[in-house]
Amino acid sequence: MGSTMSTTAPGAHTNCVPKTSPRSSRGRRRHRSRSRGRRRQSPLGLFIRGRRGSDDESEDDLSVSSAMSWEATNAPPSPRKPPAPEFGTTLLAHRRPEVYVELTPDLMLYVLGYLDPKARHRAAANPACRQLRDRVTKNREVWAHLCSSTPWRIHRSDLEHRPVNALRRLHRTVVEATDSVDTAPIADIARIMSDHARVAGVQVRCFRTLADRLHCETFRKNALDCGVASSVVRALWKFDECDDVQVVALHCVVFLARPIGGAEGMVYHRGMASRGLDAFLGESGGIAAVLRSMRVHLKNSNVQAMGCWSLVNLALNHQQKLALLALDGLDAVLAAMAHHPSTLEVQFRALFALINLVIPEAGSVSTNTMDCGENAAHARVVRGVLAAMRHFPESEKLVRCGCLVLHNLSLDDKNVPHLLAFGVARPLQRAARSHKDADVQRSAVSTLRRLRVAVAPEVDVLQPTLRMDGSR
């Protein structure tokens, strides 16, 4: 029986089995293991390294490299290995993730700046690779920069002789301390402020937490008993050049100086028995620190407004008011008004502080009377009050304080002719016509009567006696 052979045309389609690679599976694995050991440089990487050595570098590359370069030294690069790539050149590869990017310390600091303090420490202290460990985690300059930069701002002199492990522990402790402040009791907050008295960032965080809680009278009393006032005063002296620290510290002084069991603006001639308030007295006390802060930051409206507000409550105690007048506190308030004539908050707080400061205090030797000439403090007070009332005629709270200041000055019969000479009658009449507030009405009408000036007929005279201590 014969066999037949089928023939196919040359153009016909046939199902062919694909040919297998002649290389065995063991050979393929060996080839892959050898290829993994070599790292091929991409074309862009070769281009970047070639551009670094060329002389025709563009102005943009030079500006990026010079603006974000690491601390330059005069030592020449080591001849054994090529210098590390410039920080700016690595940014050229941001669209090519497959390009190898050198982890320089300044690159890591740039990236860490976008993280919050807790995540920043976690990323720097827990290296993900050996290169990150050698160049960041074990780099002393990196941790010194993290400790001295925002938000901690530890002075460089406090970090000079500390090794990298000590700097890393310091950074961890300040991060953990500030992380627990929000929910910590007052005793723990006082301890944190004492332990980190030289760290501006910790002090600011504690002051902000205290300012939110000191509205409560019970918390305020516990804070005074725990010595928080001393910590606040110490921070005012220590960080006298940091305006943000001064603002939050002065805000705490506002509440700490507020009388226990009384409202703001209530005068206490018998004194307030509290050992915490002793921190405000003395040459290095809180009153001197507040006045120094106002003089150093004279152009900062926030410091001036908060400083005048703290003087409002500091002047409520007889002993503190004597110390305030002895340290020329009246001049500090007038300087704030003169340097910020168009800032409503500064003018209002300054007038609020003047309400009690212009009242003569028993036991003080006053040279501020208007008989001493136009440069006397009380004469400058009248000019400042009239300027503020003229600049902000629609602000009822400011006009109220201005009328109270003029009323307290009119209580001294020697000041009456000087007040008339300054022309205070017209502003008082205008205030009584424009504002229906009871305090404005009573203070303006009472002062006009002392000056023996007719009250406008459309003004309704209110009979109740006015309390001239600033309380409402």
TrEMBL record:
Biased composition (Pro residues): 76-85
Superkingdom of the organism of origin: Eukaryota
Repeat found in the keyword field: yes
Keywords, alphabetical: Repeat
UniProt protein name: F-box domain-containing protein
Gene3D superfamilies per record: Leucine-rich Repeat Variant
Composition skew (Basic residues), residue ranges: 25-41
Annotated spans, Disordered: 1-88
